[in-house]
Design brief:
Layout: H1 5-17, H2 22-29, H3 33-45, E1 49-52, E2 56-59, H4 61-74, H5 77-80, E3 86-88, H6 93-103, E4 107-112, E5 115-121, H7 122-129, E6 145-146, E7 153-154, H8 159-169, E8 173-178, E9 189-195, H9 196-208
Parallel strand pairs: 3-4, 7-8
Antiparallel strand pairs: 1-2, 4-5, 5-6, 8-9
């Protein structure tokens, strides 16, 4: 069973303010009691909230938590992705290093004509700059891992699928790609980043709902 956004808000209100009456829930949401009656009935029948006559509604954590976890697993990558850090392939290694540390990221995505051509990590840059004195002249393309050896996900992939790919490739982040044809490797436009930090935020959301 999928919950509507209004039903999710009702659950949040009940959790925070239990016991709470239907009238007070309606007032907080800006609806009439009759408008919310079907939602409250469904939540009560599903045992996501417990109704006690003359007392109000109570939060039922035992029933709600599986819904929260299922909702997070099935979220689309495009709903949770973060902003990617991108440089063009002719950017110098020196400038890339500066950008990486200013943005405080572990990897930078490389593009040509706005299409993904590779990525470079801190480790890649370190290996390249050791013993070299002219990093301001060396393009980052000399240090990057090139497509098709770069794992990526699509915005329409589920969080579960993206997380499995992140672990499978043992990387800290994956570029999120917008493409009409998955087979056209040279036509991959970066629209976001899916990372371990994103997963940590989602995990924190589960923990907060467990308090």
């Amino acid at each position: 069973m999928d919950l509507s956004e209004r039903q999710k808000k009702i659950i949040d209100i009940v959790k925070e303010k239990e016991p709470i009456t239907g009238e007070k829930i309606a007032a907080l949401l800006g609806f009439s009691r009759s408008t919310l009656r079907p939602d409250l009935s469904l939540l009560t029948l599903s045992e996501l909230v417990i109704a006690k006559p003359k007392v109000g509604y109570f939060y039922n954590a035992h029933k709600v938590e599986p819904f929260i976890i299922k909702d997070i697993k099935e979220k689309k990558v495009e709903d949770v992705m973060s902003v990617p850090v991108i440089v063009t392939s002719d950017t110098s290694i020196q400038d890339t290093v500066i950008k990486m540390f200013l943005e405080d990221v572990g990897s930078v995505y490389i593009t040509e004509n706005q299409q993904l051509v590779g990525l470079v990590s801190r480790k890649d840059l370190l290996k390249t700059v050791i013993g070299k004195m002219t990093v301001e002249e060396i393009p980052v393309s000399m240090a990057m891992t090139r497509v098709p050896n770069v794992a990526y996900v699509f915005g329409t992939d589920s969080v579960e699928v993206a997380t499995k790919k992140l672990l499978e490739h043992e990387v800290d982040s994956l570029p999120v790609i917008e493409s009409t044809n998955e087979d056209k490797i040279n036509q991959l436009k970066i629209v976001g980043k899916f990372s371990k930090t994103v997963i940590s935020r989602l995990f924190l959301a589960i923990i907060k709902n467990d308090r």
